[in-house]
Amino acid sequence: MAKTIRLTMAQAVVKFLSSQMTVIDGVKQPIFGGCWAIFGHGNVAGIGEALYQARNGFPTYRAHNEQSMAHSAIAYAKANFRRRFMACTTSIGPGALNMVTAAGVAHVNRLPVLFLPGDVFANRAPDPVLQQIEAFGDGTVSASDAFRPVSRYFDRITRPEQIIVALRRAMQVLTDPADCGPVTLSLCQDVQAEAFDYPENFFEERVWTTNRRIRPDENELANAIALISAAKKPVIVAGGGVLYSLASDELTAFADRHGIPVVVTQAGKSAIDERHPLALGSVGVTGTSAANAIAEDADLVIGIGTRFQDFTTGSWALFKNEDLKVLSINVAPIDGGKHGAEPLIADAREALTLISEKLGDWRAPTTLADKADLAKATWAKSVDRMFSPDFVTGTGLPSDAQVIGAVTRSIDLEKSMVLCAAGGLPGELHKLWPATKPGSYHMEYGFSCMGYEIAGGLGAKMARPELDIVVMVGDGSYMMANSEIATSVMIGRKITVVVLDNRGYGCINRLQMATGGANFNNLLDDAYHVVPSNIDFRAHAEAMGAVAVKVSTVAELEQALAASKSHDRTSVIVIDTDPLTTTGDGGHWWDVAVPEVSPRAEVNKAHEAYKKALAFQRLG
């Protein structure tokens, strides 16, 4: 008869999570980096007590906001290339629902995180319990059901023995390269406290493989070889899957051997050293002129680990060659077949190695590399111009590009990570940041979630303590979520935050203007107010324990960045920036529907331009 151990359900959950391991660079270590927790009714008595008992081996971190702590957990997984991840627990009701947005971030970006929200009483005796959502037509519904569409696996635990199956399923999803994403186990609060005689072998140490190498089907591989061999103007679009496959060296070797230029998505940036002659930088809506020039004329787009988001494809209007074919190398079939692509369902590293072996000495025509060289040199001049402190903006305030240039000059790019998420900065960083090492560029642009930045910077620092983490964030995102500055100080994880204050949502204001709209409700001065906004970000950050300073010029910014290196805790540097100036070179049209009818001439003019642009959109 199997030996058992009597534990509460919550104790069993924590004990199981503590025994899950992985191996990274030959070193075995826990696969969970710990658990973020904000306690309330619904988790403080059950899982809170269980975490306390395990605190010496399974760390618990206290945050200030449930969404933010989940962002930290997600960034931790991303910075670890999905090889390690974290759990997050909350109370029922608002605490749980605060994490749903973060679950969307993890789902879209294919990132592993375990959500453990509290839930209503399974026995329903105190029904309705405090914070319970009552669905009048369905007695089984609770607030946690909101996690269903943004979870790769969802389960509600209504009996203590159900976690035996549920936790094993959860681990399969969290470690599966194709199905990877958020898992939600909603823990009924009374069941957390119930005891059960669990099999001892349920808690035995298990080592998980997080980089399962899926080898390609022979027929799909042969088709891929034929497509590449016939191409005259191929281009590689490298996505995040290259990084998660740890295939950067193989990508570089493949490009070298076969003479194929490489362009990168937001998730794929840093998959190749951008100093490489064939690395043309970002592609698409926020693409460099070099990358987009090659992509527009390509007769074969080789997507590797990308889901071909609309920013990557210019809303499928970027690729203008009438003979275009798309080859999509991806572990996920849903991504491999998008827009009629020829799929090669395989791990990026395995696919690149096998394709290169089969291609042998085949190379793309040398005219392609020559064109790439010229395009890259032209783009480099654009970068120098935009980075120059002498560049004059319309308001005289520094541009985002000038701030980015100052940061690149002030840090050690080999020992740093830049992190951002939403607004205008992602576009400028995608174009301009000189990524050199895998993981040195960390962008959440799958969901483009405002408020990810500071919490994400904290999670990245927890994952990569040896790196200097530089968070670049606009004033709009800062106001959305900034509380984890205090957490970073409290737990001794130093990050550097550069706040670019353009007085509002500058990116959407520019989009509003580009689609014929009037300046309305985006910049602070164009919004309804009785008292003009005058937010002191320096004082605010200082009040949370950071070392904070406000600077006026690019030169002062560089001095502040240099001084921040000697600080013993999180540093925040604030600078006022121009809300309108962006890098005009590069870029591409993006499909944002413009009203067909308007009393305003500006909107009607924008709609005519929109109709013309739609003619280039590929629907196949």
Automatic annotation (TrEMBL):
<dbReference type="InterPro" id="IPR000399">
    <property type="entry name" value="TPP-bd_CS"/>
</dbReference>
<dbReference type="GO" id="GO:0102481">
    <property type="term" value="F:3D-(3,5/4)-trihydroxycyclohexane-1,2-dione hydrolase activity"/>
</dbReference>
<dbReference type="InterPro" id="IPR029035">
    <property type="entry name" value="DHS-like_NAD/FAD-binding_dom"/>
</dbReference>
<keyword id="KW-0786">Thiamine pyrophosphate</keyword>
<keyword id="KW-0378">Hydrolase</keyword>
<dbReference type="InterPro" id="IPR012000">
    <property type="entry name" value="Thiamin_PyroP_enz_cen_dom"/>
</dbReference>
<protein>
    <submittedName>
        <fullName>3D-(3,5/4)-trihydroxycyclohexane-1,2-dione acylhydrolase (Decyclizing)</fullName>
        <ecNumber>3.7.1.22</ecNumber>
    </submittedName>
</protein>
<dbReference type="InterPro" id="IPR011766">
    <property type="entry name" value="TPP_enzyme_TPP-bd"/>
</dbReference>
<dbReference type="InterPro" id="IPR029061">
    <property type="entry name" value="THDP-binding"/>
</dbReference>
<comment type="similarity">
    <text>Belongs to the TPP enzyme family.</text>
</comment>
<feature type="domain" description="Thiamine pyrophosphate enzyme N-terminal TPP-binding">
    <location>
        <begin position="48"/>
        <end position="131"/>
    </location>
</feature>
<dbReference type="Pfam" id="PF02776">
    <property type="entry name" value="TPP_enzyme_N"/>
</dbReference>
<dbReference type="InterPro" id="IPR045229">
    <property type="entry name" value="TPP_enz"/>
</dbReference>
<dbReference type="Pfam" id="PF02775">
    <property type="entry name" value="TPP_enzyme_C"/>
</dbReference>
<dbReference type="Pfam" id="PF00205">
    <property type="entry name" value="TPP_enzyme_M"/>
</dbReference>
<dbReference type="InterPro" id="IPR030817">
    <property type="entry name" value="Myo_inos_IolD"/>
</dbReference>
<feature type="domain" description="Thiamine pyrophosphate enzyme central">
    <location>
        <begin position="222"/>
        <end position="353"/>
    </location>
</feature>
<feature type="domain" description="Thiamine pyrophosphate enzyme TPP-binding">
    <location>
        <begin position="423"/>
        <end position="575"/>
    </location>
</feature>
<dbReference type="InterPro" id="IPR012001">
    <property type="entry name" value="Thiamin_PyroP_enz_TPP-bd_dom"/>
</dbReference>
